[in-house]
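About this split. The held-out portion is used to measure sequence recovery: a designer receives only the structure tokens and must propose an amino acid at every position. Recovery is the fraction of positions where the proposal matches the reference. Here is one held-out target exactly as it appears in the evaluation file.
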């Protein structure tokens, strides 16, 4: 998939660079021709045959380069998405958690000092944090702490 898309992108990029180069050459030739003529009526052929088509080629080259780079970026995004979707879980023994199930199921409640939420002990937001301490019943009763939206603990009153 990647090589087929890249093969179609590279010619667009090469065509863009070629158009930019040809346009620059035509603009230089037109400028040189105009600069050598004293009267405006003798300068018009250089403008019509070199400068205007050169400017059009420069614009066309810029459009082709933009399109080619966008297509190249889209190819890379598709490739990364394919790798992400094709990635299998590292441990096939671990059960896959349903989408609606909470991430944590422990009954112990923890909080981080200075925080505004309480969490289950196995919540990924506090798991492994040494500064996490058990929730104080006074803070729960006072309404100073709210439930964590990730682990969805139920409020326990003592």
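Reference sequence for scoring:
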């Amino acid at each position: 998939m990647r090589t087929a898309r890249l093969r179609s992108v590279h010619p667009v990029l090469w065509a863009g660079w070629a158009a930019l180069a040809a346009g620059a050459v035509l603009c230089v030739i037109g400028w040189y021709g105009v600069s050598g003529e004293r009267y405006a009526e003798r300068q018009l052929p250089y403008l019509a045959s070199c400068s205007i088509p050169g400017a059009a080629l420069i614009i066309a080259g810029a459009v082709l380069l933009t399109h080619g780079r966008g297509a190249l970026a889209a190819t890379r995004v598709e490739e990364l998405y394919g790798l992400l979707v094709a990635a299998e879980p590292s441990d096939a023994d671990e059960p896959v958690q349903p989408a609606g199930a909470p991430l944590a199921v422990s009954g112990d409640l923890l909080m981080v000092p200075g925080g505004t939420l309480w969490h289950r002990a196995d919540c990924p937001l506090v798991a492994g944090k040494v500064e996490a301490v058990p929730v104080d019943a006074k803070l729960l009763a006072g309404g100073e702490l709210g439930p964590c939206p990730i682990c969805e603990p139920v409020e326990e009153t003592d």
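Annotator remark: The radius of gyration is 33 Å.
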